[in-house]
Write a structure and sequence with these properties.
It is built from no helices and 18 strands. The chain has about 200 residues and is mainly beta.
């Protein structure tokens, strides 16, 4: 039985703001400060991980969990314990935790970048883009790109697109090292995550 999630404290907020993630066997839900809840495909509880420190966000948290190679990756930017976390999807065991000091709330979900040398986890937020080793959580590189981030990054044709809340678009090469290919400014701000269809980028 899945325990009842406490009622959130803002009338316009919800602890269910994040999208669920699945690998076809487990389904992982993120309910902000309550924590991660993982079930099987029948909805039976497998494990849960509760967080002791709040993200201090009145409207709850929008970053969604990402599943890759038996791991759950979660952005927890905000408050006094900003971090990127990695859990074992089978057991809920914490695999690693990468501290992100001074990062304010951002709702940008992590992105798994496959390179010739392995996998990197890209995380945007607080004007900075950081790549972490997917196995250890160790920082590989970081770069200031400016802006605050709610939209999750998207891949298309060998490029990664990052859209800030202020409307700034940063395009980087999908490679082990940071290489900015382009930068432009939208007419207004940007919050929702983009999508790709054929040769079109839908905003």
């Amino acid at each position: 039985k899945i325990p009842k999630v406490p009622q959130f404290y803002h009338i316009n907020g919800s602890v269910a703001a994040s999208s669920a993630a699945t690998d076809g066997e487990q389904v992982c839900f993120y309910f902000d400060d309550y924590g991660l809840v993982t079930t099987d495909l029948n909805g039976d509880l497998l494990w849960e991980h509760k967080f002791a420190i709040s993200t201090s966000n009145l409207f709850s948290y929008g970053a969604s969990p990402i599943i890759d190679a038996g791991k759950v990756l979660l952005n927890r930017d905000g408050a006094i314990d900003s971090c990127l976390m990695c859990f074992d999807i089978k057991t809920g065991r914490e695999v690693w935790k990468a501290k992100r000091p001074n990062a304010i709330n951002s709702y940008c979900s992590p992105y798994i970048l496959k390179t010739k040398t392995g996998k990197e986890v890209l995380q945007g937020g607080s004007g900075e883009l950081v790549a972490y080793d997917s196995q250890t959580g160790k920082e590989v590189w970081s770069e200031r790109i400016g802006g605050n981030y709610s939209a999750s990054p998207i891949y298309a044709d060998g490029r990664l697109y990052f859209f800030s809340e202020e409307g700034k678009t940063t395009v980087i090469k999908a490679s082990p090292n940071f290489k900015k290919l382009a930068e432009n400014k939208l007419a207004s701000g940007f919050m929702a995550s983009p999508a790709v269809h054929g040769n079109s980028l839908i905003l």
